[in-house]
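Students often ask what a 'structure token' actually looks like in practice. Rather than answer in the abstract, let us consider Glucose-6-phosphate isomerase, a protein of 559 residues. Its sequence is given first.
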Amino acid sequence: MPHPVDPTTTDAWRELSDARDDLEPDLRGWFASDPDRARRMSLDAGDLHVDLSKNLVDDQILAELVRLGEQVGLAERRAAMFGGERINVTEKRAVLHTALRAPRGTVVEVDGTDVVPEVHEVLDQIYAFADKVRSGAWTGVTGRRIKNVVNIGIGGSDLGPVMAYEALKPYGQEGLELRFISNIDPTDVHEKTAYLDPEETLFIVASKTFTTLETLTNARLAKKWLLDGLAERGAIREGDSDQALAAIAQHFVAVSTALDKVSEFGIDPANAFGFWDWVGGRYSVDSAIGTSLVVAIGPERFAELLAGMHTMDEHFRTAPLERNVPALMGLLNVWNSNFLGAHTHAVLPYAQYLHRFPAYLQQLTMESNGKGVRYDGTPVTTETGEIWWGEPGTNGQHAFYQLIHQGTRLVPADFIAFANPSHPLKDGAQDVHELFLANFLAQTAALAFGKTAEEVRAEGTEESLVSARVFEGNRPTTSIMAPALTPSTLGQLIALYEHITFVEGVVWGIDSFDQWGVELGKKLAKEVGPAIEGDADALAAQDPSTRGLIEYYRDHRGS
Ligand code: F6P
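Now compare that with the structural description of the same chain:
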């Protein structure tokens, strides 16, 4: 693979630096003098309508950002990703989450083999399994219908399914509840199994590698909970290994790329769904990792989610960069962080069902682009990886928006809203969804256009309070709207942010698909274990701070 282009050496970067030096942000003035600005800077991709006009750019800057994309080889890298090249260089893997939603009959090759038939083979298996659970044909070991499905996974094996389950709650099946166990804090297993009936509970152990400490520990705890619970009710005999195996077969399925490890764990490989090393954990909600979601919303709806993702893939793959939504949003993020000095990026969905979307995006973006070296091992040449965060509006308005409006830091934000509510409700004559949308619109306008001292004075504010009440405006936002939150539009949103993440990574020259930065902590956790348990040598080997904390723990445990 060619070495990454250093973006800071391109002509476009130089032009953008000059443009930044000359920039006098004035969204009020820009909109006043250019009535066509909003129309010109709004684009449609699939069902998503995206308004970029409240960003701190003019046409020239947008054109230079597109040129930056061209000069760092965005189109070539995009073709390499879709074409199955091993662009995950440090793990020597292709990056083909887009193949997971390729329609039957499309050809996507990895090393000369078309992977699409395999993708659909596994999807068919998952769909058949989900149908059985949903119809009651798949029962627990005592013949009872499954009412609770508990996904055990962490990171990409948790955040995608839980985010999408929450987002698509109205599409769930009555009488079937999903829970998600991720944390190794034993509280998580305790709380998520509380009040569940083991006879009606099915666990899905989701782990790409099937080596993750948290997931395997939690799966063992769940297995014990199940067997103890069944034995207590007399459903199986304690210590009877055949009965235990039969129970595990009915109450545990697995999802992994490592099916050999699944059987070592005691789950019948017949009850396991596979996927491939060319699917990154944080890009895997649409692989078998989404099995719990398929059970919740059903195969048809899941297929709509995949189709929505594919729609966005096709837009990203084929639209020219200057009309390409993921490309423009990724390049705008580069503008905001590398030229305007923003360190963070807020995502503010005006949809309560998207309450886990920011958490999901945190892994997608920060595990992908939180890198200090480029894919050829050389140091990056500019800042990378914004800090992503957010909460649904309007809750955020009453918590942290103050800082976005009047603080000293620049916080670019994506606002997401839907024309139709998931639940239309009225407060007297007032359509509450319209009240909600009014807040979405008011916030983006207030952030862009602010309130001048003259306007504050005109309200009769006493002079000493005027400055506290001034809103400077010129806070950049992007507004994304869609007709409604559906499996398809959720799929389009997920794929949009996957591709935005990719575009940023291409500019910075990094491998957005590895995650070596999580390894050291895992290794140290193993080494620290014996010290906590009381091994004197292991304790002595710790640094003084860690030793002090372990001693505190040992002095206070059981207190
Ligand atoms: O945190 C590191 C990581 O490898 C993530 O990339 C991944 O999503 C998560 O752990 C879980 O991994 P696995 O699916 O292999 O259990």
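One point worth highlighting: The domain at 7-72+319-508 is CATH 3.40.50.10490 (Rossmann fold). Ask yourself how you might have guessed this from the sequence alone, and why that guess would often be unreliable.
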